[in-house]
Design brief:
Length: 217
């Protein structure tokens, strides 16, 4: 049963989403308080809890909250000292050097998730190939398309577009999505599409080299 410090702000979509998902997995979740960093720092809050799982982005996003890289600058042995075994995050891809550093400090599993505010999280980093993301299938349709809007072939690159297909009822079962229907929404990112089976054993399509596209990308 994971004991989790959730460093994401609870005023944003991702904080409550991580809380709910980890509780469903049977975890005990300690959420970061709403206090500004200068008044009650994330490091100070982490000292109050015994946890083995850390939910935190690698870097601060648009000045909101704090990232693991910032904390490691202040406390280089933080992960070892806290006994963190599982690092979970999103809000951007993880740098390979940061993943290696985490592993050197005893982190056994690193889960970097990818998604968007409009859809939540819909892809997770591959355990074998750094930089690849396996797409979750069912509640959304994730495509990589060319300039004409047609899906690209395996190994080709293009713009990521997402369609919201369904929602979840109170009993946890899939149901028709009752909110705003978003069809093939382009969030501004691009990637290389891979549909062949992965060496990790998963057969779900993958996104590689995810990056922000320019206005003409």
């Amino acid at each position: 049963m994971p004991r989790v410090f959730n460093g994401y702000m609870q005023s944003h979509l991702t904080g409550p989403l991580y809380h709910a998902a980890l509780r469903r997995l049977g975890g005990i979740v300690f959420d970061r308080s709403h206090h500004p960093e200068e008044l009650f720092s994330t490091l100070a809050q982490m000292e109050l809890f015994d946890f083995d799982t850390l939910v935190l982005p690698e870097h601060t996003v648009r000045g909101k909250g704090v990232g693991l890289a910032d904390l490691l600058n202040d406390d280089p042995t933080l992960l070892t000292r806290c006994g963190v075994r599982w690092w979970i995050g999103s809000s951007g891809t993880f740098d390979a050097a940061s993943v290696r550093l985490a592993q050197q400090q005893g982190v056994v599993s690193v889960s970097n998730l990818y998604g968007a505010s409009e859809f939540g999280l819909f892809a997770i980093s591959c355990t074998q190939i750094p930089g690849d993301y396996h797409v979750a299938q069912g509640h959304v349709l994730v495509e990589v398309v060319d300039q004409s809007g047609g899906p690209v072939a395996n190994g080709q690159s293009g713009r990521i577009v997402v369609t919201h297909l369904c929602g979840i009822a109170d009993d946890g079962q899939a149901r028709t999505h009752l909110g705003t229907q978003l069809l093939r929404l382009a969030g501004g990112d691009g990637a290389t599409f891979l549909s062949d089976p992965c060496e990790c054993g998963l057969t779900a399509p993958r996104l590689r080299n995810v990056k922000r596209l320019g206005t003409s990308g």
